[in-house]
Amino acid sequence: MNTTGRWIRNDRGAVAVVVALLMIVFLGLTALAVDMGYLYTVKRQLQASADAAALAGVRELLDGSGEAAILGVAEEYALLNDDNPGDGLSMLFDEPLTEVGPNFVRVTVEKDAPLFFGRIFTAGDQNIRATAEARVAYISGMSGLIPIGLPILRATKVYAYLNDAPANGVWLTKSDATTWSGNLSVPALTAGSSRRVSLDVYNEQDFAVTFPSVSIVHALDPALPFQSVDAAPAVVVNHPGEGVEPSNVTVSVTGTGETTVKLGGVTRTGTGSYTVSMPSPATTELFRTYDLDIWIGDRATGQPDLGAGAKVNSVRSTHPLKSLLLGNRFFTPGAAGSTQVQVGFHDYEFGVLYHMKLDSDGEVGNFGPVVFDAPGANRYRTHFRDGYDGVIYIGDILDTETGNMAGPTSQALQTRLTGPTFDEWVAMGMPRDVPRLVYVPVLEQIEPIQGKSRMIVVSFAAFYLEDPVGDADVSGRFVEYVMPSDFYSDEPPETGMYLETYRLVTPATEQ
Predict the structure, then answer these.
(1) Residues 350, 356, 359, 362: what is their CA dihedral angle, to the nearest 10 degrees?
(2) Are residues 372 and 471 in the same domain?
(3) Domain check: are 281 and 207 in the same one?
(4) Quick check: is 495 in a domain?
(5) Range of the domain at 61
(6) I want to staple 383 with a disulfide (CB 3.0 to 4.6 A). Which of 283, 341, 388, 479 is the partner?
C-alpha cells in the first residue's frame, strides 16, 4: 500500500483550507485598514470644521452678540469648512455638546460616514462626531508696541489729610469700583485761617502717588460779608488744542453785599448770594491746581480778601483723578469739626478722545515716552514708526525716556497718520492693517518720577491715532480690540484696559 501519496494529498487539502482562512483574515484586515483610514480622515476634517465654527462663535461672543447669533455664525463656518470627505456634516445644537457660555463657545458636528470593505461585516454607516471649544483669553505679551506708555492708577488705599497734620488724616473706604470716601477731622481753627487738603493714593505696587493741595478748608472771619464760596466741579478735564471750548465751573457765593470772584484770568461780580458760570483755566499741563479768589466789592486787584477760597484742579484726560467733593469746607472759628471727603478715579473709556502726549509737554518721564531696549531718539523714532519687534510681557519693567522726544515723535507721526478717520475705520470693520492703529503698554508707577524712572507693565491697549493739534501731540481713542496672540492668560488684567484674544482648549465634555 502506498501511504506516502495519500499523506501528500491530505497536506495539499490542509494548505488550501489554511489559505482560505487566511484570505478571510487578510480581507478583514484590509477592510479595517481602509475603513479606519477613511474614518480617521473624516474625523480630522470634521475636527477642522468644528474648530473653525468654535473660533468664529467666540469672536461673535466677544462682539457682544446673543446666543442665537453666535450659534448661527458657528453653523455658517462649520458648513463653509465641510470639505470632502467631511461634506454633508451637520452641527448639533443640544447642550452640552454645543453650548455658549460667558467666556466660551463649544461646537459639536457630526456625519454618518459610509464604510467600504466593512460592509461585508456590518450594515449601515458609521456616525462620526468632532467637538471643539474656544475660550476668551487676554493678551499677556506682545510685539509691535509703540514706545508711549499709558499710565494707570489702580487705587488700593487712599489717605486724605491736612497738609500741616499728615499724621491725623483718614483712610478712605472704597464705596464702589472707582469711588472712595471717609470723614476727615478738622481741628479748631482761628478766624481767617485755612488748611489745605492733600491725598496719598496707593496703587497695586503699594506705591503712594501724592495729589497735593487739591482742596482747602477755612474758618472765616465773621466780619467778612460772605460765608462761603464754592466751585463745582472741583476737578475739570482740560482740552488742549485750538477751537476747543474749556470746561465750565459753577461758582456759588453765599453772603451779603457785592463781591468779585476770580479764577485764572477771569473775574465775575455779583451781589449777596449768587451763582455764576466761569470757564476753567486753559492749560496743557497734566495736573494743575488753581485758586478761586474772592474780593469784597467790584475789584480784583491787590490782595484778595479770601485767597484760595476754593480749589479747581485742572487735569488732562489721562490723569487718574476724576472727582473730589468735600461735604463742608467752612467752619466756625475755634470749633473743631469734620468733613466728608469723596474721591473718584477715572476708568478709561473706549471711543473717548485722550491726549497721551503733548508737543508742549514739559513733564519728564510721565504719560510719555518709554524705553524698550535702549534709550535714545533714533531707537524711539524707529519703534514708534515701525513698532517694537521684540516681545514685552506683563510684569516687565520699563524705563522712561528722560526727554520730551518732540522731534522723533513728530517724525514718526508723519508715517503713522495716514489712512481713514476713526469713524471711517470703524465702518470698515476695524481692520488691523492701518498705520493709525497702534498698541501701547499700560504702566503703573513703582517709584517717583525723577527723570529716568521705572514703571511696570500691567496690561496692553489698542489706540487709534487722531490728527494732532501740535506736531508731536499723541492723541486718539482707545478701542476694544480682539486679535490673535501666542501669549495669553485666562484671567483678565485688573486694569479695565486690555486686549482680548481667543484660543482652542480641550472641550469640557472630553475632560
Answers:
(1) 150
(2) yes
(3) yes
(4) no
(5) 3-134
(6) 388
**DSSP-assigned beta bridge partners for residue 330:** 218
Q: Which of 125, 118, 126 is nearest to 31 (CA)?
A: 118
Helix (H) or strand (E) holding 459, with range, is: strand 454-465
Query: How far does CA 63 lie from the centroid of its chain?
Result: 15
CA end-to-end span of the chain: 74
Does 357 lie in the same domain as 329?
no
Whole-angstrom Cα distance, residue 125 to residue 109?
16
Residues 6+ apart with CB under 8 A from 73: 56, 57, 59, 60, 65
CB contact burial 70-80 (16+ within 10 A = b; e otherwise): bbebbbebbbe
Question: What mean pLDDT is reported for the chain?
Answer: 86
Q: What angle do CA 501, 55, 490 make, to 5 degrees?
A: 35
Cα separation values, 116 from 45, 110, 122, 404, Å: 19, 19, 10, 74
Q: 138: Cβ–Cβ under 8 A, 6 or more apart, which residues? A: 488, 489, 490, 491, 492, 493, 498, 499, 500, 501
Distances (CA, A) of 105 to 71, 76, 80, 487: 9, 14, 18, 20
Residue 504 in domain: no
| Runs of H (alpha helix) within 81-136 | none
- 231 domain residue, yes or no: yes
Do residues 264 and 162 share a domain?
yes
Q: Report whether 261 contacts 276 (CB < 8 A).
A: yes
Query: pTM of this prediction?
Result: 0.80
**DSSP secondary-structure letter at 330?**
B
87-107 per-position pLDDT tens digit: 778 899 998 999 999 999 999
> Do 259 and 311 lie in a common domain?
yes
Residues 123 and 183 in one domain: no
Asked whether residue 16 carries a pLDDT value surpassing 50, the answer given is yes
Within a domain: 505: no
Number of domains in the chain: 3
Question: Whose grid coordinates read 485742572?
Answer: 314
CB 186 within 8 A of CB 331: yes
Q: Quick one: pLDDT band at residue 363, thresholds 50, 70, 90?
A: very low
**Residue 364 shares a structural domain with residue 456:** yes
Residue where a domain stops, chosen among 345, 365, 382: 345
User: Which of 345, 375, 399 delimits the end of a domain?
Assistant: 345
